[in-house]
Amino acid sequence: MRPVRLELNGFAGFRAPTVVDFTDTDYFALVGPTGSGKSTLLDALTFALYGSAYRWGRSNAIAYALAPTSNRCTVSLTFDIGPQRYQVAREVRRTGQQIQQKSVSLVQFTDPTATEAEADGPQPEVLAGEIKELNPAIEKLLGLSFDDFCQCVVLPQGDFARFLTANASARQQILLKLLGAAQYEGIGKRAGAQAEQAANEVEILNDQLNRHADATPQAEATAQARVEALERLAATVDQLVPQITTAHTRAHEADTRTDTLRDETALLTSIRTPDGTEELQRQAAQAHAAARQARDAADTAAQTLSDATKEAQAGPQRTDLTLARDRYAERTALAERRDGVIADAERAQGEVTQHEERLKASKDAVDGARRVAEETREHRDHARQTHEKLQHRLQLLAAVRTPDGVTDLTSRAAAHADDVEAAAGQLAVARDRHEQAARALTAAGDGSRLTDAHQTLDQLIDVIGALTDATGELDACTETTSRTAEAVAGAQARLNAATSALEQAQALAGAAQLRPRLQIGHDCPVCEQNVTTLPPPLSDPALDTAQQARAAAAKEHRDLLARHEDAQTKAADQQRTVDQLTTRRSLLDTRLATLLPGRPAGSDRDCTADRAHLDELTAARDQLTADERQTRDALQTAHTAHDSATSAVATLQREVDRARNALHSTLGTVAALDPPAADTDDPSADWAGLEVWARTQTATAERDLDAAAAETTEAEKAHSDATMAREEADRAQTDAQTALTAAVGNAATADLEKTNLIGRLSELDTLLHQAPPEEELPTLFEECARLEAAVKTATHDAGATLETAKAAAAEQKQWQDRITKARSVLTTSRDTVAALNPPSLDTDDLAAAWAALTGWASRSAGDRQTATARAESDAQSAHAEADQLLERLETLLRDNDLDPHNLGDAPGRAAQAPRIVAVAAERARGQVETIQRSRADAASIQERIETARTRQQVAAELARLMRSNKFPQWLANSALDTLVAGASRSLRQLSGDRFDLSHQKGEFYVIDHFDADSARSVRTLSGGETFQASLALALALSDQLAGLGGATKLESIFLDEGFGTLDADSLQTVADTLETLAQGERMVGVITHVTALAEQIPVQFHVQRDTRTSTVTRQGT
User: Fold this and answer.
1) Domain ranges, residue 1078
2) Element (DSSP H or E) covering residue 262
3) Average pLDDT over residues 1022-1037
4) Alpha-carbon span 895 to 279, nearest angstrom
5) How sure is the predictor about 523, in pLDDT bands with cuts at 50, 70 and 90?
6) What is the DSSP letter of 805?
7) Are residues 704 and 661 in the same domain?
8) 254, 597, 683, 751: least surrounded by Cβ within 10 Å?
9) Neighbour order of strands in the sheet with 98-109
10) Pairwise CA distance, residues 1030 & 1037, whole Å
């Protein structure tokens, strides 16, 4: 991926539209003061691709994209991947308190040179148009996630500097973090949690297993015998209950018949004729005649009212007369005001005409004042421009100054060349001496092999000691396992004996309970044989003692079995430890045999003799190493002196280059002023000539500036006077316009009042055309009053007769209600005995009807008293038979251990017996099923215990392997080997074949090929050398991450690293390193505010910030 064009508007500090064009750029620098916005450009590039930036801390943070005072920002990045060109864009908006992405796009251009779509050209292919589509599309296109992109393209140099000098433990954590290997720590924690969970599960399952200890075959047989006895009882009960039910039914029917006869006799004797029945009939007839007379009088008065009302409606109406009188009065008043209103409207229209003429005159005055003001403004602007150009000319000329130290550059260059030649001679002598010592050391072999042999021997001795201890512990564990196995076998035998004793006691207890219930001539409930002779009673079988003995034996067996299982687990763990140590000893022995060929190995190895042999080899090599180190130090001193002299010459040459560059830059700045030509072979003379020319030009420009300042002041005053005159004319026009508006409003009001008055007069004339003449209104009012009085009198008479009719009707209704109530009493009395077939009654004559009903009731009561005596005798016989059968049923229940009280106290309680027996039988069957399920559950729980133990052992082993000194350490070491190999190749290229990178015992070393391949710790490197090594590590991990993610070819890299703390030599090393990196296939971008580094980079993007926004300017090619 190679950036081509970055466009941003409203992004962070870049509030104004900004374009950064990377076309034809392979090596560039973003330069500018601290806080100008250099790193923000990298944030914008990353945000365009992934919607966030590395410095923002989260992959979904967008709030930092929007400038604090902006409500919208856009970012667009055009980039190439191979021969294809793409463009990605994002828009962020502020809505209320929310900051959200509103629109995104990712397109592929058909033209690989295009930077935007042309309206009449081929349109790009849209790869993503939704927010949720864009990031997956970018990751698929680049093959990198957001975090990987920040590691591969925007390199975190600070992390790798720490990584380079960190200790082994910290380096492992950093490496695992950069590789994303934190998941293995999570695996270890989850495995440990699973192991603990499995152990808890085993403990819980053991507790569950103990709850099923009483589920034995003997208990199941006893429960099954109980089921069979209850089933036989159910058959007997099913035969007896219908007989009891039949007897109860006959008794209930006799009781019911007796109660019915008694109730009927009571009803018949309660019927009596009410008092006052004949007087009630007479009063009701008188009230009916009075009500009929009152209704006739009310009808006559109502007809009179109707005739008077019709006559009033046909005569004059008071409402119409009153309305006509009011309209005549209104017309008279309006006619009196008409002339005055018309005069006011004409006067207001005249005032409007006067104000219009005044407004036209003020507008003409404003136009003239504006023309004068515009002419004076143009003259003032021209004077200002002339003045500003002269000021800018003086500023450019003032910047022409000869840099310090330019005059003596040649003499200093000659002196430094002599120093370099002398240092080169001393370096050659030191190099020869060191090469001799290095060859001797090389002939003695690699010292790391002896170090490895020492370490391997130490590890082998430790493993042998640990193996001896582990073997002893294994023997002890094996002996413990054997002892616990014997104890478990003894406990099992005791448990079996206790179980047999319990079963025998349970059988005797059952027989002892059944024997007292045997009866001669009945079947035995066990063998179903007829009993002819009763056996003697059995003694107490001591069932409780047998149960306690069996429970104690079961507990002892469980405890010993648990100890045996713990012993087996410890023995298995110890055996694994012995196996691991044996394997470790074999591996170390093999490795030591490789490092010390010719020494005895295996069981013949003598570690003490090997230690002595190693000490002799080490002492000899230490002497050679000391000789080589002494000559290397001398060589290093000579190198340092030579490098210092060479650096001084290079520094002086850079001063010459800077003087020439500064001269060309200054000439470019004043190129518009036609400066004299420059001879770059003599910078001092060129600077002197340029400075003389600048002083001459400055004097001329100062004279011209004074004249321009006077002209500008005069133009400013003229424009100010014209502006004041224009403002005065504007105020006059405004006053005229305000007066005209007021006059127009007054005229409109007067005209509206005139129109309304004339219209109302016309409307009144139309309305009064059909009205009676004004002089006839008094006579019509008198006729209306007469008709209204007649209606009032008729209304009063009709109301009085109507009230009299209502009172008579109410009295009639009261007597009629009493007659109705008396008939209701008669009907109710007959209805109470309706089931006894009473005679039919004529309710029009209440007295006769009551006499017929009471006579019939007296005769019927005597017949029912005789029938009641016969029914009572039948009920007593039926109750006696039912009680005998019920007593037999209760005896059967008690004989089978069922409580007869459960039948209840209800008369039909015998019907509950089948249910009680069925419930008991079902409970007995449920007990059998419970015992069977309990035995099955115990077997299932035992299998689950074995499964959980296996799972616990596997999870515990995985957790042990996932500890930091196991698998993660192996992973980090393997990754470090690969990383160092790749970094070494990059470091050799960056250092000009001088350095290789290696690691040993958790420390990094560089192999200096310019110093007889000596190994130096990275902690001794200079600032520039440290930068080379850490950059090589960064590039190596970048390649690894890109390879793991299947990324496209990475054609760009950006270094946001602080270089301000480096000295001049280290800074030059960094500059040379970056230049070497840029000569490869990648675009290299550097962010720095160090001028000395930026001047050596061919393309510079200068970032500046003012009070409003940041800006970017490109310099160089």
Assistant:
1) 1-153+1050-1117
2) helix 217-269
3) 75
4) 78
5) low
6) H
7) no
8) 597
9) 18-21, 2-9, 72-81, 84-95, 98-109, 125-128
10) 11
DSSP 955: H
Question: What does the pLDDT average to over 591-600?
Answer: 74
Residue 913 and residue 918: Cα distance in Å, rounded? 8
DSSP codes of every residue in 96-118: TTEEEEEEEEEEEESSTT-SS--
Q: Which of 767, 796, 820 is a domain's end point?
A: 767
User: Could you tell me the two tokens for 114?
Assistant: 């295009």
Give the angle subtended at the CA of 1081 by the CAs of 1079 and 1086, to the nearest 5°. 65
C-alpha–C-alpha distance, residues 561 and 559, integer Å: 5
Go through the chain and tell me how many residues it has.
1117
Q: Pick from 767, 799, 824: which residue ends a domain?
A: 767
User: Given this model, what pLDDT does residue 1079 score?
Assistant: 79
Q: What per-residue string of b and e applies to 1071-1092 under the rule 16 or more CB within 10 Å gives b?
A: bbbbeebbeeebbbbbbbbbee
Give 188 or 799, the one with higher predicted confidence: 799
Closest CA to 777 of 330, 336, 326: 326
Banded model confidence at residue 233, pLDDT cuts 50, 70, 90: confident
**The model scores a pTM over 0.90:** no
**Is 990 within 8 Å of 1006 (Cβ atoms)?**
no
Backbone angles phi, psi at 104, to 5 degrees: -145, 165
CB of 972 within 8 A of CB of 176? yes
Cβ(691)–Cβ(402) below 8 Å: yes
List the structure tokens of 441.
Answer: 């050391």
Segment 439-449 shows an average pLDDT of 68
- Please indicate, yes or no, if residue 995 is contained in any of the structural domains: no
Q: Which residues contact 64 (CB under 8 A, 6 or more apart)?
A: 12, 43, 53, 56
Mean pLDDT of 600-605: 70
Q: Which of 24, 28, 60, 58 is nearest to 41 (CA)?
A: 28
Q: Which two tokens stand for residue 895?
A: 């004989």
pLDDT value, residue 538: 57
Assigned domain for 1031 exists:
no
Looking at residue 532, the DSSP 8-state letter turns out to be -
pLDDT tens, position by position, 288-297 = 788 888 778 8
Q: What Rg do the C-alpha atoms of the chain give, in angstroms?
A: 62
- Residue-wise pLDDT for 578-593, tens only, equals 888 887 788 788 777 7
